[in-house]
Design goal:
By secondary structure, this protein is α/β, with parallel strands linked by helices. The chain has a single domain, classed as Alpha/Beta hydrolase fold, catalytic domain (Rossmann fold), CATH 3.40.50. Helix content is 32%, strand content 20%. It is built from 14 helices and 19 strands. It has helices spanning 5-22, 91-97, 152-169, 186-204, 222-225, 229-235, 241-251, 261-274, 329-336, 339-345, 371-379, 397-405, 447-450, 452-464, and strands at 31-34, 48-56, 61-68, 78-82, 101-103, 115-117, 127-131, 141-142, 149-151, 178-183, 210-216, 292-293, 296-297, 311-312, 362-364, 384-389, 411-420, 423-431, 435-440. Strands 1, 2, 3, 4, 7, 8, 10, 11, 16, 17, 18 and 19 form a 12-stranded mixed beta sheet that branches. A 3-stranded antiparallel beta sheet has the order 12-13-14, covered by helices on one side. Helix 7 (241-251) packs antiparallel against helix 8. The longest helix is centred in the middle third of the chain and has 19 residues, at 186-204. It is globular and about 60 Å long. The N and C termini lie far apart (75 Å).
């Protein structure tokens, strides 16, 4: 028997309540346009969207993202940006590297920190999707425990799934030139994902307008990255000629796995000499890493000042002499864990216990070298931009140069300086197969955090096809 109009309405409402209670995720909007952010004065001067994309239905893996449209033209290239770790939130890229926002930590007193607009953002010349990947990073989460078991190759596969679904929801960007990009440990993931896209295009015509990829201060292969540390610290005058020559001779130029006791002792001596040097940037102060608890700032690691008691949030202000780049991490985590902030960003309630800048993951490192991926991609002619801060000891530019040389590509444009505002911004060399290597003078790990103006000029020229 048919229901009356009122009865039908009641039936529908009852069914809707049942579905919302039993299956809440299906009824939460996957995308949210953000017009204002806590701590930012006034409306945002650019288009920001946040959201989730489910990349593994069986395990319930949801990747969170921030999408910022180009401030110049939405038809500009589209960059997928990945942050390293693995396990660091892509919010690092947005706030500290290539995005248009920053925290005013120098003037912080208490409460939520102020956020300011940064003009030297890559969103001046491109659309950027910042993805919290792999699952467990940032606000990304899984509805099952097994969903948190991930790896290099699994992260890349899930990101490929992310792109398929994201473009389905954003069809107007399908024709934009697509570039896969990232920094630090994402130097492993970027070429893996890029090759996954190429295979998908070649095998079944996947709808990706892929034009190339780029990696900053990339972790690539321990046989190059770690082997480069000793010659790097010698070249930077951090160890003596005598120690360098003794280490080089006893280790036969191989420093990762010492083959004899003399080599091991020399490497210990090198580590002892440089133990107090900041590995992210050898010219900056070396400071202890901030240790934080939910709702508190741990006071043992604020600048170069040490305290015996924990300082509750809100009492952090008035602490001056902030000399360390990472001393603001507790403030960042206070902001990201604030309920108002999470509501504004559209973070699903109950999915994240505590947001961390870099989370510890259950992660399998199943790709030991990204060099074969670079060889395949560049041999297919996909343009690549590999850039390094020349004061980075974590991923020394010497190691990056080494694996690029191992590709045996011919040099098209030999080593030369490149300029910004009439000043040398670094040095560059271009190889066959559209591979460009760039150093950013005075930058650390990672380059865009230390030299935003220069890195914006670099990416603007490279994306346009102009020589650096």
């Amino acid at each position: 028997m048919a229901c009356s109009t009122q009865a039908t309405s009641n039936c529908f409402l009852c069914s809707l309540v049942f579905l919302l209670f039993c299956f809440p995720w299906q009824f939460v909007l996957a995308q949210k346009r953000i017009y204002n952010l806590p701590g930012f004065d006034g409306p945002l001067p650019f288009a920001l969207e946040t959201g989730y994309v489910e990349v593994d239905e069986e395990k319930g893996v949801e990747l969170f993202y921030y999408f910022i449209e180009s401030e110049r033209n939405p038809e500009d290239p589209l960059l997928l940006w990945l942050t390293g770790g693995p396990g660091c939130s892509s919010f690092n890229g947005l706030i500290f590297e290539i995005g248009p926002l920053g925290f005013d930590l120098q003037n912080y007193v208490d409460g939520l920190p102020s956020i300011y607009y940064k003009p030297d953002s890559w969103t001046q010349v491109s659309n950027v999707i910042f993805v919290d990947s792999p699952v467990g990073a940032g606000y990304s989460y899984s509805r099952t425990a097994e969903g948190y078991q991930t790896s290099d190759t699994e992260a890349a596969r899930q990101l490929l799934r992310f792109l398929y679904k994201w473009f389905e929801e954003h069809p107007k960007f399908k024709s934009n030139h697509l570039y896969i990009s990232g920094s630090s440990y994402s130097g492993i993931i970027v070429p893996i994902l890029t090759l996954e896209i190429v295979i998908a295009k070649e095998s079944h015509g996947a709808p990706f307008n892929l034009k190339g990829y780029l990696a900053g201060n990339p972790i690539t292969d321990a046989n190059f990255d770690q082997e480069a540390k000793v010659p790097f610290v010698h070249g930077m005058a951090l160890i003596s000629d005598e120690l360098y020559e003794s280490t080089k001779k006893s280790c036969s130029g191989k420093y990762v796995n010492p083959s004899n006791i003399h080599c091991a002792k020399n490497l210990d001596a090198v580590d002892e000499v440089i133990k107090d040097v900041n590995k992210d940037h050898i010219l900056e102060p070396s400071c202890p890493s901030p240790i934080q608890k939910p709702g508190q700032i741990h006071s043992k690691a604020i600048g170069n000042i040490f305290y015996k008691e924990e300082v509750p949030l809100g009492s952090y202000g008035q602490l001056q002499a902030r000399t360390c780049r990472r001393e603001g991490d507790p403030i960042l985590m206070f902001w990201a864990n604030n309920d108002t902030v999470k509501d504004t960003l559209g973070v699903r309630k109950g999915t994240i216990v505590y947001w961390e800048r870099c989370a510890h993951l259950s992660y399998t490192f199943d790709v030991q070298s990204a060099v074969p991926y670079h060889l395949t991609l560049t041999s297919k002619g996909y343009p690549s931009l590999i850039f390094s801060g020349d004061h980075d000891m974590n991923a020394p530019y010497i190691g990056t140069q080494g694996w690029i040389r191992s590709l045996n590509f011919s040099i098209v444009d030999d080593w030369r300086p490149w300029y910004v505002d009439g000043q040398v911004a670094g040095f560059t060399r271009r190889y066959s197969n559209n591979l460009t290597f760039v150093t950013v003078k005075g930058a650390g790990h990672t380059a865009a955090e230390y030299k935003p103006k220069e890195c914006l000029a670099m990416i603007k020229r490279w994306l346009s096809g102009a020589p650096l």
